[in-house]
């Protein structure tokens, strides 16, 4: 690449970044207005880790993602980063994860029905070296590991020796663009209520995160049987179950078997999720609100 090509590429990237920032700002400001309690608490927290409310990982990550994208407008150190919300689960809704704060012994796994982390990816330069190299970090406030933690270190520690686990415990990952998640995640916390009306865990002090407009592709019942037909009572709709549930059909790709010969990423009938069929993970993006399903090897390839 000659000097003029480098200059043109730099200008194109700068224009793209400026366009993205110009789009992000009004969305973030709107989120601050529509969910002032949760969003403001994210900005007021003294540290990232202090956002943690035990047993509400999905809300912790919503607030962390909001905090990071908001900071990104003013902090040049964050300007080249992309953020992704990652739900960890499987069709059994039982995934062993090591080094979790919920365990008194970090070397013994906690079996989560689902867990949520934030992943950032971008490029870094070593001192005295002009060569940029990719770098990915994991933000898991429920882990004994550092927060953030280098991606490879986190995966190796948390899913230690996973290939030797019984098949039904194999982890799968729903990867969602952070901005999309901020706009579409909605939960009234009813999943944390017991039949007698008491809480399984003390709820956060801020108001529920509720979006007034549900995603257009959200149907009353999804392909994996998750019913989303009832409103949350505030004009919005609960989308948490859409994110946290990873069905057998999604994992096997059975909803798109007719397209196997084409390879690539496909959305099922109601566009709930993009399913990766017949190819390794790539940097392709999907317009589906509820992200893409990855195996652990694919996740490594995506964020290595």
From TrEMBL:
Pfam families: Nt_Gln_amidase
EC number from the UniProt entry: 3.5.1.122
Alphabetical UniProt keywords: Hydrolase
Catalytic reaction annotation: N-terminal L-glutaminyl-[protein] + H2O = N-terminal L-glutamyl-[protein] + NH4(+)
Molecular-function annotations in GO: protein-N-terminal asparagine amidohydrolase activity; protein-N-terminal glutamine amidohydrolase activity
Keyword Nucleus attributed: no
Gene Ontology CC terms: cytosol; nucleus
Residue ranges annotated for the Protein N-terminal glutamine amidohydrolase alpha beta roll domain, each copy included: 53-219
Subunit structure: Monomer.
Chain's role: Mediates the side-chain deamidation of N-terminal glutamine residues to glutamate, an important step in N-end rule pathway of protein degradation. Conversion of the resulting N-terminal glutamine to glutamate renders the protein susceptible to arginylation, polyubiquitination and degradation as specified by the N-end rule. Does not act on substrates with internal or C-terminal glutamine and does not act on non-glutamine residues in any position.
Family to which this protein belongs: Belongs to the NTAQ1 family.
Name of the protein in question: Protein N-terminal glutamine amidohydrolase
Species of provenance: Nitzschia inconspicua
